[in-house]
Write a structure and sequence with these properties.
globular; binds nicotinamide-adenine-dinucleotide; Rossmann fold; Dehydroquinate synthase-like, alpha domain; 13 helices; 8 strands; 6-stranded parallel β-sheet; 48% helix; 385 residues; binds zinc ion; two-stranded antiparallel ribbon
Length: 385
């Protein structure tokens, strides 16, 4: 076997009250990066500033990170960091806030760089010459608190760039379930199914190893048992805690094993129609498990260990219990008009085939396969062979 590596944050602090860890960071100045208004509204920003102050740290807040954060937002935040000179960056929010904070951190440390110069995977120079990074997720979904990834949008050219750099793996992840407990039910469902997709895709990835598969399996088991409970009763703190942990466990698997066709197809249909990441993933997942099954033993092995008869069927049933439609045609989050679907289908299929996540999908799917999966997931056709 060739030499492999497995990278995760140095410290992961988890459980109710984990936010307290902010009072012992051991620095002097912190820049808190956050999204719209939810973290402020629920008092988490004030709590974070109080905890940092308790530890003798001054802090500023860089807020207003939008969903699908832009290059402009990242540049603005980096400038605020350069003015304040923090030795810790504290990202509090969903994937959008954490992703933006990671790239602000890069431009804070390397003001000479342009966005174009960090797009190529592995091109980002080393970080941690000025600051270290703590991530406090408020959704149980993207696992940006664990991963080497950040997704930033070039709003001028309407392109979403996945930025990949091992140094962007945070130093510390704080998993406090009090934050995601405030998510409304539909956000719980969509981000929770994103966790399921991360875990199932990491399990079936051609880059899966004995270091990644245990985390993927544990995450699938936790989502199957807890997502319906967290969706039905947002105050179920036991279920919220398990879902929050599941998100990071899935992150530990997929940041090291990568993903597959579900994410390739979700990225591009998201780009064309604006459908939420987790919702697109959830609709696609059962079709792609059925398509992939003949190319991999990993589902059968996972099913045997987890005591699940048919993973695709279990996910269809879970989607239905979470109010997630079985097809894009039935999805009313955005307008999935058939005319537009047919118009963009070839381009979208070719772009999804070229997505980096396709590289680690089992088998060697063709553009025609990708198109057939899009059609199946739009019209509700079976992909079982
Ligand atoms: N870095 C990675 O590895 C990775 C992986 C997958 C996706 N992404 C990216 O992450 C982003 C999506 O992140 P997300 O799914 O976490 O959503 P998000 O951060 O965009 O947040 C979604 C919405 O929920 C709100 N919200 C967040 N937490 C809340 C809470 N606790 N209570 C109430 N409202 C809350 C936000 O304000 C926002 O309006 C996308 O840009 C996607 O491309 C990154
Ligand atoms: Zn995802």
């Amino acid at each position: 076997m060739s030499v492999m590596s497995f990278s995760i944050p140095r410290d992961i602090v988890y459980g109710e009250g984990a936010m307290e860890r902010l009072s012992t960071l051991g620095g002097t100045k912190a820049a808190i990066v956050t999204g719209g208004s939810s973290m402020k509204r629920f008092g988490f920003l004030e709590a974070a500033q109080d905890l940092l102050a308790k530890g003798g740290m001054k802090s500023i807040i860089i807020d207003g990170v939008e969903p699908n954060p832009s290059v402009e937002t990242v540049q603005r935040g980096a400038q605020e960091m350069r003015d304040f000179e923090p030795d810790w960056i504290v990202a509090i929010g969903g994937g959008s806030a954490m992703d933006a904070a990671k790239v602000m951190w890069c431009f804070y440390e390397h003001p000479e760089l342009s966005f174009e110069e960090i797009i190529e995977p592995g091109s980002m120079p080393g970080l941690r010459n000025k600051a270290r990074f703590v991530a406090i997720p408020s959704t149980s979904g993207t696992a940006s608190e664990i991963t080497a990834f950040s997704v930033i949008t070039d709003t001028k050219n309407h392109i979403k760039y996945p930025i990949v750099a091992a140094d962007m793996v945070p130093d510390l992840a704080i998993l406090d379930p009090a934050l995601p407990a405030k998510m409304p039910a539909h956000v719980t469902a969509h981000t929770g199914m994103d966790v399921m997709c991360h875990a199932v895709e990491a399990l079936a990835s051609t880059a899966a190893t004995c270091f990644t598969t245990p985390y993927a399996l544990q995450a699938i088991d936790l989502v199957l048992k807890n997502l319906p409970k967290a969706y039905a009763n947002g105050d179920d703190m036991a279920a919220r805690t398990e879902m929050h942990n599941a998100s990071s466990l899935a992150g530990m698997a997929f940041t090291n094993a990568s993903l597959g066709l579900v994410h390739s197809l979700a990225h591009k249909i998201g780009g064309e129609f604006g459908v939420t990441h987790g919702l697109a993933n959830a609709i696609l997942l059962p079709y792609i498990i059925d398509f992939n099954r003949s190319f991999t033993e990993s589902y059968a092995q996972g099913e045997a260990l987890l005591g699940v008869e048919d993973l695709a069927q279990a996910i269809r049933e879970m989607n239905s219990s979470l109010g997630i439609p079985a097809t894009f045609a039935e999805c009313d989050e955005v307008d999935f008009a058939e005319e537009k679907f047919l118009e963009v289908l070839d381009r979208m299929s070719s772009n999804a085939h070229g997505d980096p996540c396709t590289l680690t999908n089992p088998g060697t799917p063709t553009v025609a396969d990708v198109k057939a999966i899009y059609e199946a997931a739009y019209y509700g056709r079976s992909m079982k062979k």
